[in-house]
């Protein structure tokens, strides 16, 4: 005996319609159908049935993994409950013995529910269809059903309309038209539903295909725009995001509207989809439904964003396991993005074909359809391709078979002629994947064309993205294929690895065309002087090519480049340059953000690694492109300033201008320049002030800043203040500077960073200087939060007052931080193993302590407090945050100005720091005394002039 679809879905295990109706009939018999007791009993029963049915659906989802099956089961459960409630209301509560023609209705499922699928947290969209106008009976029945559903805790979207209203509103409102397109009969008067369906087909759908298609495509584009216009966001929206379920819905809506079908499978018989494409549709839909149902079950609500918080649990629920180089959650997310890519391929090709077909029937349409108005014409210089209504197409079906290089040539011609792609050409590409083999990969012409695409002065990133979406890029360069759709489970990277690489090329191209002069002035200036432009583009494109491998991706990527570059036609010298750039692509940004750029050893070490000005230029540009392409908000002007400082210092060294003698000369010159700039001061005031500052201050701080500090110190002294703060905003650097003048003491930096944490300020860097009279002149750089300068200045002033209050003993630090952190927060899903590194080789004068761990409020304050407990003098601090991970570096000495050379003491420092780093996020140390003003003459650093 053949199993029916219902048997295979085990729908009776979810709920048996006959049993529910018998139970409700029994309630009506026992309590009287319309009584309050009966209503309460009915509500209790449908609540129980709903809860048990959903729990059964959840269990079956874990057992068989069927996403579409789960959504169908929950929809069936809702069908049975809604139908039973209608029967109960119409028979036992508001029974009419001889109903008039107006006392009829049909209860219809519309929208997603109309498709016969529901996620656990989905809205229940109901349309109560009436023959004519509303009557007392229809109002009472509808109200009774709705109130029961609401009392069950369900979210119900509903409308009550007669057939005429449904037709009239469908003509004017595309949302209503789409909802009724998917209308499905649930219960009530079946002939009324048939009447609605017939009139909808004849009076709404007939002759309006182009209008509907244009509206749905415009709606899709706007939805994509709102979600970032990429399917490769690492926290995607499973329902509304690009490549999500709504894209599949759009495909089905258009097909159903145009072809009058009831099931996607009918598209195969019509020749719209091949069997392979239909199977791809089914698999993608099933996977996305499985993910969405798991999300709703896990969160207990209609959660559509696949956030970091739940990705691990979803991966576990779907049975993913860790593999070398990729965790279970990263493997799950890679599968998700591959499915999203499949959805994009299906919707793009299908919708583009319909655009083309409809354009012939409705040439007056606007938007995506009207641009295809001209006839196909030859493309000069080739017999294999034609331009068809603004898109490149193949001249005949054997173009790729006759010459496989044409697969790459298709994209090359699209680039140089600025053409979009005809869906027929993309379909033929998909069916020619077997031609992208070892022979084509080694073909000299194919590689020349690809290198031309990559280094194009037009829009290389757009063509690379088209190649990637078409599946060509990962096949032509198999190493790239391994990182397609690969995500990294952290808050730092916003996109998948392949999307990041393509976006990096986009940034480089933008700088190359001179479009980034304001944002990246140095990179914009250097790029035209770089001789090996091709090598730079290849390095940018390949720098993360080895992500997801057990080996360090920079090292593994260099090996990939050494093999791949000769294939692309690069010379041995160019190949070695690309290999070096990839192996060191993180070095410049890490040195700039985590090292003291005023320490000569930092510059000499970096300079010895770079060796040539050409490599320095290229590494600077690569670093800028890499950081910019990580995601929105990652790049800021402060990072740009750090990179520029490192570049200029290293350039000076590589050109022979950096030496100890020149440093002393520069210090003397800086002191002289400061003295000349203090023109309004008396000779006595000027002489006294020039003795305050040591060499590091004079060399590190620009003259303009030195003058600001001079006036600040002068005014503070005149006012007789021991404590003072000064605030300045810098919109270009996206930084707000808070400068503090205070008596020096061991815990000063700890208090300052704690006050910033309590105020919710994210510290980007800290410049720490001591004056010769025992005071500290510290500048804390915090990330800007408010767009308006006046608002940001008020915010900075508020933080400054908090720092002063804590230092003066008016505010107790642990209490302030406790108020900020509040109640215990849910643990974040990220794991960062705490690490502490202590080195005496990174600086000639200081011991460098570097640690990394999971970021949390008050961490920096706790760490600096521990360093003070250990009698360490903090010379400079460099704070770097990569999403959820913090990498902080401290340059320290002991209180007599020596490096920490004792191995025992180093081990003790590391142990104390690891204990702090491993603490839970909302624990706050309570060791700092509230009044921290040190007596005159004390020093936390014991700094003496060099």
TrEMBL record:
Keyword Flavoprotein (UniProt): no
Magnesium recorded as keyword: yes
Catalysed reactions, as listed in the record: [protein-PII]-L-tyrosine + UTP = [protein-PII]-uridylyl-L-tyrosine + diphosphate; [protein-PII]-uridylyl-L-tyrosine + H2O = [protein-PII]-L-tyrosine + UMP + H(+)
EC number: 2.7.7.59, 3.1.4.-
Highest taxon of the lineage: Bacteria
PROSITE patterns: ACT (PS51671), HD (PS51831)
GO terms for MF: [protein-PII] uridylyltransferase activity
Co-factor requirement: Mg(2+)
Domain ACT: 737-819, 848-929
Function: Modifies, by uridylylation and deuridylylation, the PII regulatory proteins (GlnB and homologs), in response to the nitrogen status of the cell that GlnD senses through the glutamine level. Under low glutamine levels, catalyzes the conversion of the PII proteins and UTP to PII-UMP and PPi, while under higher glutamine levels, GlnD hydrolyzes PII-UMP to PII and UMP (deuridylylation). Thus, controls uridylylation state and activity of the PII proteins, and plays an important role in the regulation of nitrogen metabolism.
Protein name: Bifunctional uridylyltransferase/uridylyl-removing enzyme
Lineage: Bacteria, Pseudomonadati, Pseudomonadota, Alphaproteobacteria, Hyphomicrobiales
Gene name for this UniProt entry: glnD
